[in-house]
Write a structure and sequence with these properties.
EC 5.4.3.8, alpha/beta, Aminotrans_3_PPA_site, Aspartate Aminotransferase, domain 1, 4-stranded mixed β-sheet, 14% strand, 15 helices, globular, binds 4'-deoxy-4'-aminopyridoxal-5'-phosphate, 7-stranded mixed β-sheet, PyrdxlP-dep_Trfase_major
């Protein structure tokens, strides 16, 4: 079965041929490949072609695909059954591990996706404060919950529907969007609406309008604003958690949120999310308190085993230093290639995540990111794909490295970039 044949079959039965929009390659053109297997830094499609993978299942695979430690943990767990519907020991160890590694997480609730985590965190913020409004940032993506599909990033931005049909106006009106990295705009908004805002949710490093780090003092400024106005500060660390540092972006920038959400890496590749934070807030969640949130498969024993094995791996000494150094090798290398070819290009990187932009400007805002040349990105993406390098198939997604990416993999990637950059510019 070829990629094309599979996509033809898929398109008849799955909207756009996929189960999650950006996978369809719609904005970059062409058809997606179907992965048959993955190992370390590589994916192999059903036709046997190998790709160096900078998507990493959109973040979870920080130790590389099919890591033996994670696979063995899952195999052991599976032998004892797939789901129990009662508490299981892995949930307790997971809660102990997360709260130890991320001190702002005094209590935690496991869920099944990042979307569930953010929806639940917002309900908690509203329930705990008795307020209705929430603040989010243009170009930030927090899953597909109704409250978040307002000026959203990721696929919503890629496909030009940042505010989705189907979200009731009454709901969208409660979401107040702000420009990212603009503290003054936040101050003005809080001066007007502060007493009605339950929570402010932010990707502490934006990763869904490509990769944009917070400017110095920005997160601290938001922390002060939220404290002054009795608004809960929610860090959506679904992407940044255990990615930019062991303790997430909150450890890297030294800012303590009231609530945080996690996903991706904590599931080791299984469908897992989590939210948590201050104890007196989390004690308001059912059945300890009245704010309802539940899940048939939440805390699933196999998922806990995978996540715990992954969290074990990232605690190895020097893990994040090595990852950051390799990421730098890649972004500096790509910059040198682009400079050599006279291609307008800039990069961002934080820990093991990075962004590539076809523009001369250093990108620090949504306006900058969306002003970069997406047509040039698309040509670059296709040229790299042809040469066996898989980048995120959208100009508005961050890229990810894993500890399995070797110096040789990066050298091969830069060789491919050398051959591709000139063509990307020529158009
Ligand atoms: N928050 C952020 C920051 C994300 O990047 C994502 C997904 N990429 C989500 C939430 C939603 O997670 P999920 O796709 O698991 O629902």
């Amino acid at each position: 079965m070829t990629n094309h044949e599979l996509f033809q079959r898929a398109r008849k039965l799955l909207p756009g041929g996929v189960n999650s929009p950006v996978r369809a390659f719609k904005s970059v053109g062409g058809e997606p490949f179907f992965t048959a297997r993955a190992d370390g830094a590589y994916l192999w499609d059903v036709e046997g072609k190998r790709y160096i993978d900078y998507v990493g299942s959109w973040g979870p695979m920080i130790a590389g695909h099919n890591h033996p430690k994670v696979r063995e943990a899952v195999e052991r767990a599976v032998r004892d059954g797939l789901s129990f519907g009662t508490p299981c020991p892995g949930e307790v160890v997971m809660a102990e591990t997360i709260t130890r590694l991320v001190p702002s997480m005094e209590m935690v609730r496991m869920v099944n996706s990042g979307t569930e985590a953010t929806m639940s965190a917002i309900r908690l913020a509203r329930g705990a404060t008795g307020r209705s409004k929430i603040v989010k940032f243009e170009g930030c993506y927090h899953g597909h919950g109704d409250s978040f599909l307002v000026k959203a990033g990721s696929g919503a931005l890629t496909f030009g529907v940042p505010t989705s049909p189907g979200v009731p106006a009454a709901n969208a009106d409660l979401t107040l969007p702000l420009p990212y990295n603009d503290l003054h705009a936040a101050e003005l908004l809080f001066a007007e609406h502060g007493s009605g805002i339950a929570g402010l949710i932010i990707e502490p490093v934006a990763g869904n309008m490509n990769c944009i780090p917070p400017q110095e003092g920005y997160l601290q400024g938001l922390r002060r604003l939220c404290t002054r106005h009795g608004t809960l500060l929610i860090f959506d660390e679904v992407m940044t958690g255990f990615r930019v540092a062991l303790g997430g972006a909150q450890a890297l920038y030294g800012v303590k949120p009231d609530l945080s959400t996690f996903g991706k890496i904590i599931g080791g590749g299984m469908p897992v999310g989590a939210y948590g934070g201050r104890r007196e807030l989390m004690e308001q969640i059912a059945p300890a308190g009245p704010i309802y949130q539940a899940g048939t498969l939440s805390g699933n024993p196999v998922a806990m085993a995978a996540g715990l094995a992954m969290l074990e791996l990232v605690q190895a000494p020097g893990f994040y230093e090595t990852l950051a150094a390799r990421t730098r090798l890649l972004t500096d290398g790509l910059q040198a290639v682009a400079d050599g070819e006279g291609v307008p290009f800039s990069t961002n990187r934080v820990g093991g995540m990075f962004g590539l932009f076809f523009t001369h400007e250093k990108v620090s805002s949504y306006a900058h990111a969306t002003a970069a040349d997406t047509a040039m990105f698309n040509r670059f993406f296709q040229g790299m794909l042809e040469r066996g390098i898989f980048l995120a198939p959208s100009a508005f997604e961050a890229g990810f490295l894993s500890s399995a990416h070797s110096d040789d993999d990066i050298a091969e990637t830069l060789d491919a970039a050398r051959a591709t950059m000139r063509l990307a510019r020529a158009g």
